Amino acid sequence: MDQLLETKLNDFRKSMQTPEGRAHQEEARKRSEEYQQIFSPGNIENLRKADVEGFLDWQGRWSGLFRQKGRIVSDMEQLKRTLAILLDENKDIQNRLNRLMPNEPGYVKGLGRAVITAILHLVYPDKYGVYNRTVEQGLNELNRMPKFDRGERFGSRYCKINKALDNLARETGLSLAEVDSFMWFVLLEPPEPVASAIDSLEIIEKHLQQLLEDNWEQTELAKEWGIYEQDGEPVGVEFSAGDVGRIDILCQKRAKDGDWQDEWLVIELKRDTGGSAAVGQLLSYMGWVQENLVRDKSKAKVRGLLIVREMDPKLKYALDVCGAQVEVKKYNLSISLDTVNH
What we know:
- With 342 residues, the protein is an alpha/beta fold.
- The protein folds into two domains: 3-186, no CATH class; 200-330, Trna Endonuclease, Chain: A, domain 1 (3-Layer(aba) Sandwich).
- It is built from 14 helices and eight strands.
- It has helices at residues 3-16, 19-38, 49-57, 69-72, 76-86, 93-98, 113-123, 133-141, 154-172, 176-186, 200-206, 208-214, 276-292, 315-322; strands at residues 225-227, 229-230, 233-234, 237-240, 246-254, 260-269, 302-308, 326-330.
- Strands 1, 4, 5, 6, 7 and 8 form a six-stranded mixed sheet that branches.
- Helix 9 (154-172) crosses helix 10.
- The longest helix has 20 residues, at 19-38.
- The chain is globular.
């Protein structure tokens, strides 16, 4: 066991022994057992819309599943058929997962890998781990992220992830459920000092990315663009662009038939004025997308959007060179208080 893993593991175990840690584990265990029964293969025909919505709204173990709730529960009969495919242990897991991907008969819009593997894990907790953005980043942090072949299908990639999680469970003595919690702990940053009223706006601005992600469909950008998806899962927030860094939000243009066009939008968020250096960073991300994601490289299909609080006068000169390929928008944050009649 390397030093990084040992240090993180010791800290994780200490946190789980605190009263708060024990209470959280007990609550998560109870809710997990409840949903294990709800999603069990024998109960799929009795599955209610309220059951699925309650699971997606549950913040006890995973966050963000609620973002696709409307699409997932829009056709409950199709969802039941899809879950029956997912949970059929008489069939090969790779084939089952591949049948749930876009353009396959078991595909349900919004039902991406984070939700699919969470349900799989709840029903079979000793056999399958969870594959979501936190797990991917956690495995990368621990240098245990498996390599994928170009064009490798989701079923095969999940089996590699699941093997990495199982190996980690054996190495640490944790269960797969505990490994799932551990992945979140690996990425946990030290707590920030308590904010004063003066810097409270700065705290809000730091969460601009989260606000956009949670409320994407209510933004004007959503009419034309969607957050980039892989395996039916929105993965475009904090998207890894290799050695270049992480893209704040990566979007793909929507097609009229509900599919995706080969056109891309790279969004860079700046809490302040966003100087000319921000344009250079944005162009680097755009170049990476052009090289690695654009299918037809004969046409310029990558645009950039810089979202800032205030416009830096120096920014104009950089934008003049970029032309229509890069756009700047200003954001405004406000809080309103509504009277509640009682």
